[in-house]
Amino acid sequence: MTTARPPASGRSSSSRSSSGRPASGRSPGRRPGGPDTRGEIVKAARETFAEKGFAATSLRAVARQAGVDAALVHHYFGGKDELFIEAMALPLDPRQMAARIVDGPRSELGRRIVTLFLGVWESADGRQRMTAMLRSVVTSEAVARTMREGMTGMILEPVSRFIGPPDARLRAGLIAGHLFGVALTRYLVELEPVADADLSTLIDRIAPAIQQYIDG
């Protein structure tokens, strides 16, 4: 008569690994990538940036908010800058914009800045995104803080280094204030005759003023 032997460990070896985790190896509570995982990460990033600001937001914090593994955030976006650009729905990568601004002679820097900035607003998609962003910035302190921290690191600091002392950061900030004032006047308030001025005329009028900030 044969006697059946009991399992050696007293539990099934098929459902758990030696570490106590599911046999799949995934940590509990973290979902794998799905059809809309990217969109969920963007939504979580937007919420986390608004709550914590750009500087205090980490990719791990966004992953926790989205309920996914941090590796998925890296897979879809690579880094925090890329995630910020996507979450804020920016029409142009600010790092590329900064690189184009500083690529050229200093004497033409003012014209390059104005041409690139207004060029973003002049496209239909760019105007829609920038209008939404500007309205959010002026109505929400959380969004304003996020944009301020993100754009400072990606645009204002590289431009400040190119401008050089003295007061490089102040002058870069004044340039930003001047340009956003023009954008508010032309595209949101639509104040005449700024609103219907020809783009080339507008650039010709504004560029010398921006160059004055640069030259100090």
From TrEMBL:
Entry keyword set: DNA-binding
DNA-binding positions: 58-77
Domain HTH tetR-type, residue spans: 35-95
Keyword DNA-binding assigned: yes
Gene Ontology molecular functions: DNA-binding transcription factor activity; transcription cis-regulatory region binding
Highest rank taxon of the organism: Bacteria
Span list, region Disordered: 1-38
Cross-referenced InterPro entries: Homeodomain-like_sf, HTH-type_TetR-like_transc_reg, HTH_TetR, Tet_transcr_reg_TetR-rel_C_sf, TetR_C_16
Comp. bias (Low complexity): 1-27
Stretches of the chain forming a coiled coil according to its record: none
Keyword Isomerase in record: no
One Pfam assignment: TetR_C_16
PANTHER family given in the database record: HTH-TYPE TRANSCRIPTIONAL REGULATOR RUTR, TRANSCRIPTIONAL REGULATORY PROTEIN
Protein name: AcrR family transcriptional regulator
Organism listed in the record: Kribbella solani
Record lineage: Bacteria, Bacillati, Actinomycetota, Actinomycetes, Propionibacteriales
